[in-house]
Design a protein that fits this description.
Layout lengths: L1 H21 L4 E4 L5 E8 L2 E9 L29 E9 L4 E9 L4 E11 L2 E7 L7 E9 L2
Antiparallel strand pairs: 1-2, 1-8, 2-3, 3-4, 4-5, 5-6, 6-7, 7-8
Length: 147
């Protein structure tokens, strides 16, 4: 009985350690240009990211820019602030990365497959790619910040 209890508590500890590693991506991040803040959160077991702030210098006529490059004309009038740009990420414990996600680039209106990893607690690296070819694509560095 004693061994069963020890095994049970070790299992609980291992599960919580996995959850803590996976949740390190949660928080607010500056994009690589430090013009936009993206809030990453866990929703329905997957990680998503939403633009929550943009520096006022990027505003047009006192308003945040619109999603005017979106391939869907009906969405081109929406503000980029409040726009979800990361979607569907899951944590791969073995590789210590978030994978199977997508990233939307409002500058081009394109969505790319994406994965990410932490270089440190303060630096998140993301790589968007096409056609399943992870080695071909563009990388971005995001920096931990506060809202």
């Amino acid at each position: 009985m004693k061994k069963v209890l020890i095994l049970f508590f070790l299992s609980i500890y291992a599960i919580s350690a996995y959850s803590q590693a996976a949740d390190k991506i949660v928080g607010v991040w500056w994009n690589d240009e430090k013009t936009t803040k993206i809030q990453v959160e866990k929703k329905d077991g997957k990680y998503i990211g939403t633009i929550v702030y943009m520096i006022p210098e990027k505003y047009e006529n006192g308003e945040p820019p619109k999603d005017d490059e979106n391939p869907d004309p009906a969405l081109r009038d929406r503000s980029v602030v409040g726009l979800q740009i990361l979607e569907g990420f899951v944590y791969n414990e073995k590789k210590e990365e978030w994978k199977d996600g997508t990233i939307y680039d409002p500058k081009s209106g394109k969505t790319y497959d994406c994965f990410g990893w932490l270089e440190s607690d303060e630096l998140l690296k993301l790589k968007g790619f096409v056609m399943g070819l992870r080695f071909i694509g563009r990388s971005s560095e995001w920096y931990k910040t506060t809202l």
